[in-house]
């Protein structure tokens, strides 16, 4: 076989190996990624170069650092230096969500292919290994490493003037499988046992658990670790200051800003706010640079918006991301337009951060169904955090993986308008992929003929990739759903029992409701009856009200007639008749019976009224019994209701032919005011005055208290006796009063007789007879007799 044939066979063997074309440090996708500026990171780079060129036995240099501290920039710088010196064996830059760069399946084969081209003397040995094991790419990573790297390099005796062969591995923590990460670390540490040329492995990553545990199994003699964020802050700040001055000066010249812009004071503030994070400085610079004529305004927004005082670098990085995202909400947007913009932004950014393969703008538009506007118009203000190539066929990438961490972490991305729910995005993408694939099939299930001739580009690969991610998310969700289903099944069982109990209660309540409905109907009927009765009573009330008004009017008339009544025409013996004749008033009722009924009617109707009689009498003490009580030394003025009614009944039956009418009048008056009470009370009080006065034994000879008492109240007594007293009581009481006045007190005696005669009604002839009787037995003075004659009273019957 000729040399040319052999060479072609060897080349063909290399091409059979799976290769991640974007893994090298100088891949096309990284042509704009920065390297360390001159005079920056000098101490660290000198230390690394001293290790690669030296004779130290430690074959692995692990550069550990937090996100955004510049690890990848340093890795590119190291790779560039050794590439130019032809001592770079291979490089592999892991990228989460970067397709083949997000896992280790093509890690060893990609390293082998690069070794074959970068170190020509090793190509033959590598191709021999492929020829020996054509299916080597399907073997484990450990077998691939032994067959394609360790054996070919061990077969080399020398590398010429190259002291060491360098492998650069960046961002190992972004490999999606922790087990693969530990295996890769073990494989890289085996370089120390190579019998051929010296191999140095420069490795960068975040200090994640999987990385740290992987190095626990590697002897300390085979590796060293340098913690990037432990470098003195003054050194890091000085490097960031150089970076900002250099890049902002370029932006100032491009936008024709004043010389010296933005000034050392602004740069110092930016350095302070970067808090040791190169990614903060780089992101802030891109944000300012892409503002073009508004670069100065954007710089002000970066300075003014960062108000964090805590020392956590992550907080400052989060704020710069949030500032850029919010700047995409333009002032001219309405509230509805702003919400729509944020919704589209979440959809696009969510797709970029969850897919394993980065997609080009064309593929994204097909996948997401963005037809009204292009992907670029949605993310046109986010070039500071997204790498958007001018070629629409090339994938859109994140500038830094920390953006993915920020967007997917709700505690960091605190603005809900931009936070991405990973599960929700996976679900939406799965639905969209299924809908798109379905659209390429006919109704009968056969593949469209035109589909055969179409190119299966990265759009369909991404679509399947999205389905794979969604499947993983759905598998995890399925486990949760199974647990929830188990819990819900138990709850269903409990609820079923509760339903059974509630069903029984419902039956009971239904029966109770039926009974209540029946009662309701009965009560409804009763209500109607009572309503009718109420209407009848209402009508009766109106009638009685009218009758009452008529009776009141009649009463007023009767009252006036009664007070004006002239009884002179009545014969004297008519009033002296001890008992009026019985009259039949119909229905077998006699006059006496009617009187009894009326009296008892008064007792029944005004029982409460008469209970107040004693209290009323006491309130009238000055009028009724106060003075008499003083004269007698105490007197009882209690008037019992029964005594009053019995006395009233007896008086009416014996002495008043019209007693029934008077009782009716009294009954009516009691219902109107206190006049009747006062009248009856006063009548009995007058009788008590006279009796108590006599019993007291008081005399008025000394013109003392008795004289004053009689003189003051004599007229009231006499008028009361004349108006209210019955004939027999009047005579007796008058006699009592006269007995209280001795003959030697002629002025008082005459005054008493004068008032008694002049104020009497002419109808009271019986009292005149009583006075004459008293005069016959006790003697009246001649003056009194003349007075009586002057009053035309001489025709009295004696």
From TrEMBL:
InterPro entries linked: NPHP3-like_N, P-loop_NTPase
Coiled coil: 478-561
Record keywords: Coiled coil, Repeat
Coiled coil as UniProt keyword: yes
Domain Nephrocystin 3-like N-terminal span(s) in chain numbering: 48-206
Protein name: Nephrocystin 3-like N-terminal domain-containing protein
